[in-house]
Design goal:
Number of strands: 0
Number of domains: 2
Strand content: under 5%
Structural class: mainly alpha
CATH superfamily of the largest domain: Tetratricopeptide repeat domain
Order of helices and strands: HHHHHHHHHHH
Helix content: 55-70%
Radius of gyration: 24 Å
Number of helices: 11
CATH architecture of the largest domain: Alpha Horseshoe
Shape: elongated
Length: 240
């Protein structure tokens, strides 16, 4: 949602009893800790309160402009329907990531995973803008950096499936289920692509391959009441 901005003009009045006494020390304003803000950010995401999530993430960035904090802000901006802002934020996150790169010879697995997450966010922002080719490029960069790239491969698979480029999406679907065989939607897209290309036999049935049957059955195994369960059951009923 787009957040409307309002302009408020405040006139402050001070009376003798309310004004601080000159020379008297005043208590410091309460500070919100990063830990508290992280909890608030996570809770806001769970509640789908994107405005609160963006506000918490921005405060975290104000405290420390780390790659992780900037990536969290980018995600909140995507959910808040501000994908162009999210792309700008991922630019900053990638710059921060380079500053945080471990020295030569030091372990860098966690650093690579964080960079993978930034490219995943970047891809999601491009996808929201319908800039599909740029989204796929970002997802490929994410997959190349991650030790477990099931999500970016699925995003490539689903993006190409949704725009009708199923043959180019097929390898990404296979990679996604290979890396993460618990991803039900990846099995559904894989099975749907294969089913659509299966030949019709002389009796009007669909001659599906063992891979197609496995993909469809795996979806039902993982998500028996999932949103695509009826479609999968219908495909299996048509299959020989």
């Amino acid at each position: 949602m787009l957040r409307a901005s309002s302009l408020f003009t405040a006139v402050l009045f001070c009376c003798v009893s309310a004004c601080p006494v000159i020379g008297q020390s005043q208590p410091a304003p309460p500070q919100t800790s990063p830990e508290t803000l992280k909890v608030a950010y996570t809770q806001a995401l769970q509640d789908k309160d994107w405005q609160a999530a963006t506000a918490a993430a921005q405060k975290l960035v104000d405290i420390r402009s780390s790659a992780e904090n900037l990536d969290q802000l980018a995600n909140a901006q995507i959910y808040s329907n501000a994908p162009q802002d999210a792309i700008t934020t991922t630019d900053r996150a990638l710059e921060a990531e380079e500053r945080e790169k471990p020295a030569a010879g030091q372990p860098d697995a966690a650093w690579k995973e964080q960079k993978s997450k930034i490219y995943l966010s970047r891809g999601n922002a491009y996808l929201k803008l319908r800039r599909n080719s740029e989204a796929i490029d970002a997802y490929n960069q994410s997959a190349a950096l991650s030790a477990s790239p099931g999500q970016p491969y699925f995003n490539i698979c689903a993006t190409l499936y949704n725009i009708g480029d199923t043959q180019n999406g097929l390898p990404a679907c296979r990679k996604s289920v290979q890396v993460d065989p618990t991803r039900a939607n990846a099995w559904f897209v894989l099975g749907s692509i294969l089913f659509a290309d299966a030949p019709i036999d002389g009796k009007g049935g669909v001659s599906i391959s063992p891979e197609t049957r496995q993909a469809l059955q795996k979806y039902l195994e993982l998500a028996p009441d999932g949103p695509h369960a009826d479609d999968v059951k219908a495909m299996l009923k048509m299959a020989n």
